[in-house]
Amino acid sequence: MLADFIYSQPTWLIAVLVIGIWTGLSLLGLYVFNRVVDVHMRHRDTETVGLSYNTVAVVYAVLLALIAVDVFETFSKADSIVSSESNKLSNLMLDASGLSPQLASQVRSDLNKYIDIAVKSEWPSQQAGKLGGEVFMPGWTVLAHVSDELAVFEPTSMGQNVDKAEMLHALNDLIKARRSRIIAAGEHLPSVIWKMLLLGGVVAVVFTYFFGANNFGIHMAITGLIAVTISLVFVLIITLDYPFRGGVSVSSDAFRSVQQNAEGSLAAQH
User: Fold this and answer.
1) Are 187 and 220 in contact (CB under 8 A)?
2) Burial per residue of 167-176, b for 16 or more beta-carbon CB atoms within 10 angstroms, e otherwise
3) HSE of 115 in the Cβ direction (CA atoms, 13 Å)?
4) Does the model's pTM come out above 0.90?
């Protein structure tokens, strides 16, 4: 699968490939077109072509901008979801202090186990595009165990009663954030959008062939720069399209930070 290849390679390599292939094909097309269609005939209509190209360029630029903004917002949303999930984990870790010592220790142990599963198992699977139910089942099992532990806990004081209610609320929010992360891991642009982008890019590049430039080298340079500009936006969209895949992706650092902060807090208390 093409996506598996793309997101298993370094970002710089994908950038080189996309820019090189797109620009190379654009310049090759101009070379062939220049051999077939007489430049003097094109020169007479350069002004008309220029006016028409302005319309095409503006429409395509707006399309590229809208899609680039959309994938960036999706990426930012995924990052916010992970932050929300880690914040709820941190709340549960700290609030466990209000439970009985034995239950607090068990809850923290389960939450640490959950973090290990998320970081060591789920994140690599998300990176590889493996989003089957079996990947996420261990994490769900741990959260179900924490929920059962809190549900059967009988508070012996008003403080423990409030703490239990707060932890159950935080646990529900954690489950929602987790579900949102799993959904976000599979989000990407539909293939029809990519077809529109590619077709629009082809039209935008081919339109430059109709200019009747006096110097073919200048014509090649202009077409090449336009192709590079388009391909750079393609690289940006590819990089951000899958929020949890590739070199530029949402990391699991926030989860590890929760563990480190919880361990530091416990050490300070003792």
Assistant:
1) no
2) bbebbebbbe
3) 24
4) no
